[in-house]
Specification:
The protein has 420 residues and is an alpha/beta fold. It has 2 domains: 11-183 and 351-400, Rossmann fold; 188-346, Rossmann fold, CATH 3.40.50.720. 45% of the residues lie in helices and 17% in strands. The protein is built from 17 helices and 15 strands. A hairpin with a 2-residue loop joins strand 12 (312-320) and strand 13. Helix 3 (57-68) packs parallel to helix 15 and helix 8 (181-204) packs antiparallel against helix 15. It is globular, with a radius of gyration of 22 Å.
Length: 420
């Protein structure tokens, strides 16, 4: 067997990484059961998998599951600030995964690492933001001949894939694992809600009770964040462009304002939309002294960083870990967290392992489904089969020791018939 190729910070961190991975595994019972099944059935034997994901302990447990199923895996980081160097070392030294990721790497290294995993000529692409798929289509179209599908686990990535599909540019069947009911409920709503608050508190040590928190975007992630901020005693203001979501926020008791007005009252402003330039120069110019800006959308484009730089007369880097302070011409200070990147991963550890247990169980089962259906799926964006989502929920309930009712034959007949 050829030696593994990798680019990690320090293999000497592997022992610490193993401890971190094993700690996360304790809270991932459903994925552990999937791994046991994969080890017995080997559904991925002989398949090469390229992944662009956050290099965290939870991701490591997903990749261990895929490896147990027979996959050869190469992993690149999907965010330079989210990589846990000890986890990366453990994946290489202990779990046999080729990893190309270092915490804090520059954009050139990030691009080089994405190219490295694609050099493995993967059969399956596991993406987090559509970067691998984008590069394969625009720069390495010959790879599409060997690849037969993949998964996308972010809202931003699914939006990109749907646009590619609508334009006839998507040449692979890609499964929107982001869009399952279990992921939207647990990962997006509960996971993003809690981990975003965690990142803000670690970076600032701020008190949220009695403060005004502005949440830009009231989708699954934004609604979860708004709920958690309100639960900590904050006054929560929501900004939205979708009338239906804005109405939903109003009916849940949140104040809804245009960003132009929200920027004037917010103490902490968090973007979670999947779009760019949500907080722009005119909004930055209206901020209160000491206002905190954070982003929990996938890419660092939701806050106009160029505008922030241009408006500042002084930048004080790292006034606290993951916290930069920008001083405007009139002396007002604006605090930016995690360089405008994902604050829950840049300033904290991302979602709790219990949340990722369901997301990654669904993703592992979807990868096996793709392998079984190789060559039968048309290019485009596919939904996760409903039975997989149901199975994930059942695995999690079983692991939690929770029992539920089953339909009686009479109830099943009633639901399946229109006759009285």
């Amino acid at each position: 067997m050829a030696p593994l190729e990798y680019d990690v910070a320090d293999l000497g961190l592997a022992a610490a990484g193993v401890r971190r991975v094993e700690w996360a595994e304790r809270a991932m019972p459903a994925l552990r059961r999937v791994r046991e099944r994969f080890a017995a059935e080997r559904p991925l034997d002989g398949l090469r998998v390229a992944a662009c994901m956050h290099v965290t302990a939870e991701t490591a447990n997903l990749l261990r599951t895929l490896a147990a199923g027979g996959a050869d895996i190469a992993l690149a980081a999907s965010n330079p600030m989210s990589t846990q160097d000890d986890t990366a070392a453990a994946l290489v030294a202990e779990y046999g995964v080729e990893v190309f990721a270092r915490a804090g790497m520059d954009p050139a290294t990030y691009d080089r690492n994405l190219a490295a995993v694609l050099e493995r000529r993967p059969h399956l692409l596991l993406d987090d933001g559509c970067d691998l798929v984008n590069i394969a289509h625009l720069e390495r179209p010959e790879l599409i001949e060997e690849a037969f599908g993949g998964c996308e686990q972010t809202t931003t990535g699914v939006i990109r894939l749907r646009r590619m599909s609508a334009e006839g540019a998507l040449k692979l069947p890609m499964v929107a694992v982001n869009d399952t009911a279990t992921k939207r409920m647990f990962d997006n709503r509960y996971g993003t809600g809690q981990s975003t608050i965690d990142g803000i508190l670690r970076a600032t040590n701020a008190m949220l009770a009695g403060r005004t928190v502005v949440v830009a975007g009231f989708g699954h992630c934004g609604s979860g964040l708004a709920e958690r901020a309100r639960g900590m005693g904050a006054r929560v203001v929501v900004t939205e462009v979708d009338p239906v979501k804005a109405l939903d926020a109003v009916m849940q008791g949140f104040t809804v304002l245009p960003m132009e007005q929200a920027a004037r009252v917010g103490d902490v402003l968090v973007t979670v939309t999947g779009n760019r330039d949500v907080i722009r120069a005119e909004h930055i110019a209206a901020l209160k002294d000491g206002a905190v800006l954070a982003n929990s959308g996938h890419f660092d484009v939701e806050i106009d960083l160029a505008a922030l730089e241009s408006l500042a007369v002084e930048v004080r880097r790292e006034v606290r870990p993951h916290t930069d302070e920008y001083v405007l011409a009139d002396g007002r200070r604006v605090v930016l967290l995690a360089e405008g990147r994902l604050v829950n991963l840049g300033a904290a550890e991302g979602h709790p392992a219990a949340v990722m247990d369901m997301s990654f169980s669904g993703q592992a089962l979807t990868v096996a489904w793709l392998a079984r259906n190789r060559g039968t799926l048309e290019p485009g964006v596919h939904e996760v089969p409903a039975d997989i989502d149901t199975e994930v929920a059942r695995l999690e309930l079983d692991a939690l020791g929770v029992g539920i009712d089953a339909l009686t034959p009479g109830q099943q007949d009633y639901l399946n018939s229109w006759r009285p």
